[in-house]
Amino acid sequence: MSLKAILSSIKKTLLGTTPTTNEVIRKIPKRRVAIMLGYRGTGYYGMQYNPPRETIESTLFNALVSVDAISEKNSLDISKNGLMRTARTDKGVHAAGNLISLKVLMKDPNTLNELKTKLNGVLSESGSGLKIWDIRRINKSFNCRKVCSSRWYEYLLPACVLDNTVTRGPLNLDILKKYRVSDTILNKFQNVSNQYIGSHNFHNFTVKKTSTDLSCKRYVKKIIIAPLVDMNNIEWISVRLHGQSFMMNQIRKMLSLAIYLTRYDYPSSTVNSLFATDIKVYIPNAPASGLLLDFPIFDAYNEKLIKLGYSPIEFNQYRKKMNDFKKK
C-alpha cells in the first residue's frame, strides 16, 4: 500500500468519516434496462432529447435523476447513460406504447418494480402525461431502434372531414352527432390508403429528402380503417398503420393526402404518381393531435432475449391499461 493510501486510511479512522453520496453511488453498478411507457405528446417538442426544449426524453430523464437512478455526475450528459429510443415521435404526437433503453444505477434487478413505482409517482405528481408500464432488464448490446421488427400507429379523425358535402358550411355539435359516414366514402378512403401498402419511395411524404435518398424507401405492411363512435356520440375514423418504420411527418402527410383524395373524389392512382416522380411535391401535414404510436414489436429479437434468460418485450399484457390511457 502506498504512503498516500496509508495516510488516507488513518485519517478516515481517526475522523470517523463516511463516504459521500456520490462515492456510494459510484459503487452501484449501472445496468441497461428497457422502459416501456406511454405519453400524451401535447405541449412537448417531440420525443428526442433537445435542450432547452421540453421533450418526452428530457422529462423522463429528469425523473430518473430525481429518484437516484442516474448519478449526479451523469445527470449533466445524457450520452453517458446510453439512451436510445425505439421510435422518435414528432412534436405533439402521442404514444400508448413506446420503449426507451438506457443504463441506470441498480443494486438488485428485483428493485425494478420499486423504481417503476417511484417514477410513476414523480411523473404523476408533476402532471407530465407520462406513464411507465414496465421496466425490464435487457442485455448490454440491446439497441431498441435497430432490433424493433415493426411499429403500429393509429390516427383518429372526425368522419365528417371525408365528406365534402357536410363540411362546406359552419359545423355545430348537432351536425357532428347526426353524421354517419357512408360505405361509399369509407370504401374510397380504404382504397386510397391501400396504395401506400408495400415498399415505396416516400420522398414526397417527409421533409428535406430527395427521390434519390435510399432512406426514403419504406415498407408499409397493413392499413386498417374502421369507423367508431366516441362517448359524445360523434363518429370518428380509426386508421391503424403497421410498418417497419416511418420517417418524420410521413404518416401525417399520408393521411392528409388520403383525406384530400377521398373528400374531392380524386383518383387513387394519384398516390402512386407521387412515388414515381422525382419532383418534390408539397403535401401538408394532418394535425399531430390525431396521431398516436400504438406499440412497437420485437418478435425477432425476443427469441434472443429468451435464450439469454431475459423476459420477452411485449406490450399485449398492458393492452387494457394502454387502451384506458388512450381514452384520457
Automatic annotation (TrEMBL):
Domain Pseudouridine synthase I TruA alpha/beta stretches: 194-293
CDD domains from the UniProt entry: PseudoU_synth_PUS1_PUS2 (cd02568)
Active site positions, chain numbering: D90
Catalytic reactions on record: a uridine in mRNA = a pseudouridine in mRNA; uridine in snRNA = pseudouridine in snRNA; a uridine in tRNA = a pseudouridine in tRNA
Segment forming the signal sequence: none
Residues given in the record as substrate binding sites: Y153
Cofactor names: Zn(2+)
Record flagged with keyword tRNA processing: yes
GO CC annotations on file: mitochondrion; nucleus
Predominant localisation class: nucleus
Family, as annotated: Belongs to the tRNA pseudouridine synthase TruA family.
Stored NCBIfam families: hisT_truA
PANTHER family the record matches: PSEUDOURIDYLATE SYNTHASE, PSEUDOURIDYLATE SYNTHASE 1 HOMOLOG
Stated name of the protein: tRNA pseudouridine synthase 1
Organism: Naumovozyma dairenensis (strain ATCC 10597 / BCRC 20456 / CBS 421 / NBRC 0211 / NRRL Y-12639)
